[in-house]
Amino acid sequence: MTLRPSAFLFGSNQVEALAIYLAALRTGHAVFLYDAAANLPFAEQLIELYRPDWIAGPTVYLDQIKGAMDEVCHLTEYSLSGRTIVREHPVYHDLAVLLTTSGTTGSPKLVRLSYDNLQTNASSISQYLNLNDSERAITTLPFFYSYGLSVVNSHLNVRASLILNNHSVVTRDFWELFKQQEATSFAGVPYTYQMLKRMKFAQMDLPSMRYMTQAGGRLDPSLVADFANAAAGKGWRFYVMYGQTEATARISYIPSELIQSKMGSIGKAIPDGELDLDPETQELIYKGPNVMLGYAKSEEDLFQGDLLNGVLRTGDIASKDVDAFFYVKGRLKRFAKIFGLRVNLDELEQHLEQEIGSELSCIEEGERLVLYYTTAESAEAIRERMSSVFHIHHSGYRLELIDELPRTASGKKGLSPFAGA
C-alpha cells in the first residue's frame, strides 16, 4: 500500500509559495492551500484535525504554530517542516488540492479537488479566454482562493507568464508594477471593480492590457455596462464569469462580444461543461469534469474517492433564456420567513443596493432581519423600500450602520452567505 503524503501550504502570491505548490503537484502530494495571514488558532485546529505530513509557509508564521514539526529546510523567508504520519488508509490517489469553501473561514470543511479537476478547468478557461504563451497575468487575488488559483493554473497551462503581486489594486505600487511588467490581463471580484470605478479606471493608460475578467459574485449591471463600454473603447475584452470552489473555479462565462446583449446573465457553460435546471426547484445543476470529489471535514475524508461523479448542485436558483444563457436569481437557502412572508434575501439586497447606490448585507437573526449598511443618509430610503416593495413592517427588521462591510481575503462581503465564486 502506497501512502501519499498530505501537506499544508500557508502562503501568498510569492515565488516560494508557488514553487512549493507546483512541487507538491509534481510529486503527487495532496496540498491544502491557506492564507498565511489567517487566524492562527484556526490554522492550528485544522492541522490537528487533518494531520498533514508536512507544513510550509513563511518562517515567522510557522514559528508561531503550536506543536510545530521539525524544521527541514529554509527557502529564503519560507520554511518547510515535516513528520512521519502513520495512517491506516492511503490518501486518495487523485486528490491534489484542498481549499476552503467560499465564506466558511471559520469552518473546517474543505473542498477536495483532483488532478483531473485542475487540468480540465485550466484547459477550459484557457480555451474560452483564448490564452497563449504571450500572456502576462498579474495576480490580483490570492492563489489560495479558487478564482486566484484558476488564474495561475490557466496561464501555466499555456506556458504563459505570471507577475506575482501582493499589492492592492488601489495602490500606486500595483499600477507601477502592472505597467513596468507589461501585464496583459486583470482579474477582479465585484468589490475590485467598485474600487476601480472610483479610481476612474477607464481613463488609465494601459497599453499592454488585453482583457479583464470578473467573477466572485454578482456585479451590478450598471458596473458591467460601464466596464464593457470602457473595454470596447480601448479594444480590450471583458468577461463576466460564474463559478464555485466546488467546481474548481469556473462554471460559466459570457463571451466578451455578448456582454451588452446578455446583461445580468452568468453566461453559458464553459467548454466540456453542461448547465441545466432542476424542473421542480429551478436549482442550477452543473455537470463537468471539474466538479470536486466531495467535501472533507476530517482526515478520514482524505481517503474518500469521487462522491459526486461530475454533478454539482450549485444551491443557486436560476432561469434560462432561449440561447441557453443562465440568470441567477438567488440562493436556494437564502430565504427568510418574516411574519409569515417568505423573503428572498439576495433579491432584497440587490434591490436595496440599487436604490441607495451602495453595498448592503442582510442576514436573518431569529425572526427578524438585520440590514447592515454603510451610508447614514440611506436609512430612510431603506425603510421606505422595505415597506412599499417588500411589505415588511419596521418591527420585522433592524438597521445597523457600520463603517464598512467586512470582507473575506478574496473581497467578498463577510456578512453575506452568498456563495458564488
UniProtKB/TrEMBL annotation:
Family matches, as InterPro entries: AMP-binding_CS, AMP-dep_synth/lig_dom, ANL_N_sf
Top-level taxon of the source organism: Bacteria
Pfam families: AMP-binding
Domain AMP-dependent synthetase/ligase: 10-295
Name under which the protein is recorded: AMP-binding protein
The species this protein was found in: Cohnella rhizosphaerae
Lineage: Bacteria, Bacillati, Bacillota, Bacilli, Bacillales
